[in-house]
Amino acid sequence: MRFLLLFLFCICALPVLGQREAANWYFGNNAGLDFNSGAPVPLFNGQVETLEGCESFSDQEGNLLFYTDGKTLWNRFHQPMQNGDGLKGSFSTSQSALVVPNPVLQNIYYVFTPDDVLAYGLGTGEAPSGVTQSNGFNFSVIDMAGDAGRGTVTVKNVDLLESAAENVTAVRNFEGDFYWVLTHYQDRFYAYRVDGNGVNLQPVISRVGPNISNYENFRGSIKISPDGTKLAIAHTTVKPVNQGNLFLYDFDSTTGTVSTPRLLNGDRVYYGVEFSSDSSKLYASGLAIRGANDMGNLEVVQFDLEATDIPGSVYLVNTYEGGRVGVISGALQLAIDKKIYHAVPNERLSVIRTPNLGGINCDFREFSIDLGDRTASYGLPPFIQSFFETIVTIENFCEGDLTTFTTDSTGPVSGIRWNFDDPASGTANTSTELSPSHVFSSFGVFTVEMEVTYQNGSMRTFTEFVEIAEVPQVATRVDLVQCDADGQEDGFADFNLNEAIAIFNNGNQDISALFFETIADAQANMNQLNPMGYRNLVNGQVIYARAFENAECYSIVEIVLSVNSSSDLGLYDIVPVCITNSGGFFVEVDTNAAFDLLENEFGGGSVQLFKTNESAILEIEPVTREPTKFDIREEVVFYFRIEDNGGCDFIGRIDLDLIQPPEFEEQPTVFLCNSRAALIAPEGFDTYIWSSGESFQNITVNMPGIYEVTFGSGACQYTQSFTVRQSPEINLDKIVVNDFRRDNTVTIVISGEEISNIRFSLDDGSTFQESNTFTDVQPGLYRVVISDECTERTETIVVGGTAPFFTPNNDGFNDVWTLSNTEFFPNFQMSIFDRYGRLLTSFDATLPGWDGTFRGMEMPSADYWYKLSLAEGRVVTGHFTLKR
């Protein structure tokens, strides 16, 4: 069946499709890029904040239409689109959304949202059929004619698959009259056709391996090649162990079928995949597998899809200097400038500048694309891969060269009209040749457009941003001086040839270089040298750099490799350094003492510190003045390199005398006691400097406030901050008196966590106890005292009671029975009963009590019961004994 959109009319002619639909990107943490000029320009108006996936879409002229994080759609005014919330994508999905336009109805767009692994929740790790807790694979419909051209979501979250992976890709068929949208689940690819009638709800299903059954491994990207012939997928396989799953398939853009699975590589946990614009190269990002549950450095690799042995053609494009740079390896995305961009959490993107070229010529630049003050995360917006298709091979990019355009279309082309975006070239600015040539009038980026007409009458517009490079303005001959640090003084050393770039590039940070032993190799771009650790053949050897901004436009630079004799100083000094943090097998040390020593000793040169001798020789991974972490199971030393004008003057080692930090409370609170507080810094240090001006270990203050003391010995200095406060008042919540008992108790309840050393007294402070409960308290009047070291609180209480017996024998002692301390209970009412419950008498404060008689007759010796009514409704009952 089909999902049909009903309109009063439809446009039958197919539109001329351009490639600027992918001109605007929004991703990461409010980051964005505009590619309309042919070079990425930062955007600062995006609303997306996403950990991974995102999507954005523009019209054929490159004007933004809308973008999304998979949950919310924002219109071109960066406002939530009408009915554009609640999409079933996710900010934590590898590819959280992909937009496909209706190829006939110009205002209709479909937003496809893949599944989310986090939606599966906890479970066995298996994703059985019929899983209901996942988001599934869905699509929603946007009508851009709605809401006055801002767009309206007219249909939301049409369920295509109950469960799926976190990926989606799309490509146009060759005729351009429909699209295929693909996702994956377990061992099946699902291809949905999108044509003028809408989305066909019945997919073309291709069942091919491998079977990814654990839902934790549903992460990773999928891409179809721009020419629609290949499909690549990265299964980010982490459960039960790390596993490299990067697969390549054949794809048929006519039928939507996927076939011929090929495992390309198993050395990395892959995440991002992307094809070059001419579909000849495949790139993938992955974390190197060091063990079953241990992932190593972030790497980007290239595969040559035209090679006989594609898996064997793997080329390591880049290993990130920072190691892992995150928990996953980040998205790779082709742009309309035909460069591939790589995202991991950073204020910059990395870029593969010439991805159609093989090996080192692809020209990877780590973190070279500035995002302004915004940051990327792990995702970039995917697009219909056909937007990036290249049907032309372009060669010769130097200013003044004859740039050639060789058409290589997969379909029968009847004609092409070229516009080279170079009006200064006059009539040569346009051409109708199938494979023309053009000399651009200057360097810069030119937007070359090709209006291609096919023999079946269909038309497509292709855009190529041709970057004509200025011939690199570099020094033609430079010296690269290295220290002789192998202990043999033989004129041989290991060089980091990349250090020469900063010497000859005249300050142009975009200049890169390849290195060769002969000028013939440099001109032919053959037999490149490994720049890291190249060992010279003779002292004064000349090698050659092929310097370029664009890999095909270069200048040759002669580099003289000189080894500085008597430059290895060996063990230079032992420096006390302060441990700033420690734990387990790691210590973190302050580097300032080592820097200060060397800068004082070698005042005329630049000082660099390194953790290893190799790093010092090759000048990689320098240590900064920030605290530096060491593994104490390894060598804990600094190696230094002293340079003057870019050449290595001296190299050597500094041993470290590690000084453990003292244990002390960094921010204690002290209370004033009798308007005084003693502040005591840790003992045993050479210097003490207080913020109040004193220079003793201990000081006394009489005002609340914050007092800091800096103390230490030599370079190791520490700071302690005292907060001095008024002594807190003792907050007496209540005194609970349980009286009129055989064992009366008094409990004193206070509040306030900051009060310490509290003591309690019932005898006006004569004796104190730490417990707040007093037992066996005799009836009477008490003055309660609550005291800490500095503050005292007093209250008076009455403990009521009755005599346990009385002897009415007229001897003057215990002749009358009543309650004790009657003066404190002026409104009491007392009733006396015999054991049968007969009321014998009642009295109040106006009467002396009971004399042991009833109606003039003496009552016998026995136990009698009383009922005492006190103020506020309190009733006490008990018994006593009459003794004759």
UniProtKB/TrEMBL annotation:
Q: Does the keyword rRNA-binding apply?
A: no
Could you tell me which InterPro entries the record lists for this protein?
A: Ig-like_fold, PKD_dom, PKD_dom_sf, T9SS_type_B
The organism's superkingdom is given as Bacteria
Keywords in alphabetical order, please: Signal
- Name of the protein in its database record: T9SS type B sorting domain-containing protein
Residues in the signal sequence: 1-18
| UniProt xrefs under NCBIfam families | Bac_Flav_CTERM
The residue ranges of the PKD domain are 404-468
Q: Name one Pfam family in it.
A: PKD_4
